[in-house]
Specification:
Rossmann fold; about 45% helix; single chain; about 375 residues; about 15% strand; seven-stranded parallel beta sheet; alpha/beta; 2 domains; globular
Length: about 375
Amino acid sequence: MRIIHAIARLNVGGAALSVLELAAEQQRRGHEVLVVAGTVPPGEESLEHLTEELEVPYRHLPTLQRELSPIADTRTVAAFRSLLRAQRVDVLHTHTSKAGATGRVAALLAGRGRPRAVVHQFHGHVLAEYFDPARERLYRLVERTLARSSGALVAVSAEVRDDLVRLGIAPPEKIHVIAYGFDLDRRLATPPGARSATRERLGAGEDTFVIGWAGRLTQIKRPLDLVRVAAAVDGAMLLLAGDGELRADVEQLATELGTADRVVLLGYVDGVAELYAAFDSFLLTSANEGTPVVAIEALAAGVPVVATDAGGTRTVVDDGETGFLAPVGDVTSLTAAVERLRDDPALREAFGSEGRRRMRERFSTARMADETDALYRELLER
C-alpha cells in the first residue's frame, strides 16, 4: 500500500511518537509510507529527529500549523491536494484536528488524486471543556461534517470513542478503537547503574522518595496539583521533565508552599529512560487524556502510577493492580495514594512488575500495525 500519514506537528508527545512508530513498522512490512507534518511552535520540543533514527520518509509542510489562519490553512489544503495528486496514495491517514481538517478537505478536492481510503485518528480531542462554548460548537460542526467524508475514524481508547459518540461526531460503528503501540524495550533501555547515577546527579538521596512527571506544563495537565501533592508528602522530591506556559506558576506555588527545594524543574529532557529508572512513583494529574503515553512508559519501566481518572487513563492504569486512580482535582486522594506507595516498597515492586508485563502486552507496535492494516484493507475492499 501507498500511505500518507499527516499530523499537525511532530512535537514531543504520544500522538507524534505513535505516528512515527506506526509509519516505521508499516515501512518494515513493505508499504510505501510518507509522514507529512507542520511546524513545531516556539516553546515545544520536536521529534523530527526520530524520522531519521527510524528511517521514516518525512516531508515538512511549513504552512501546517496548530492555530487557525485562513491564509496558511488555505495554502496547506492546496499543498496537500498537490501532494495527493502527485503521489496517488491508497490511504490518507490524518492525525490531530488541523491536519485532519486540511488533509480531508484536500482529499475531497483532489479529483483523480483522491485516496482510495481516508482515515482520521483522534489521539484525544478538544471538543469539550477545552475552549469557549462558541469555538467548541464550531469545532464539533467541522468534525461532524468531515466525519461523513471519512472512510473510518480511529480513537486511541474506548473512552475517546465514547466521547465522540456522545458529542455526535459519528455513530459508534464508524469509530474503530486502536490503542497506541511503541517499541518500549528500545525507548526504555538503560545502562547498568542508571538509577543510582541519575538520582545522584539530580540530588536525590538513597532514601528519598522520588515522584516523577513528564509532559507540557499547560492547564489541561493541572501541574499545580503536582506541586500540592508533593508538598503534602513528607520526604518526597518531585522531578518534572518538560516545560510550558505554567512553569512560572509552578515555581511560584512551590515557593509559597515551602517546597521549592523539593520540586525540581528539569525542562525538556532528551531521552527519558534514565529518568524513569530514577523514579519511585509516577504522578499524573491531568484534567483530560487521550491515552497517557508517559503513564505507559512509566509502567513499562516498572514504576507504579498514581493518576487522575481522566479520559483514556483507565486504559493504561489498572486501579489497585498497577497503580491508583483518583478523581480529577482530588489532591487529598492523590496524596493518600502516593503516601501508600511511599510506605510500602513491596507494593511498589508488585505494581511495577505487573505494569511492566501488561504494557508490553497491550501497547506493542506490532499489534497496533496489525489492527491498522486490517482497517485499511477493510476500507480498500469496499
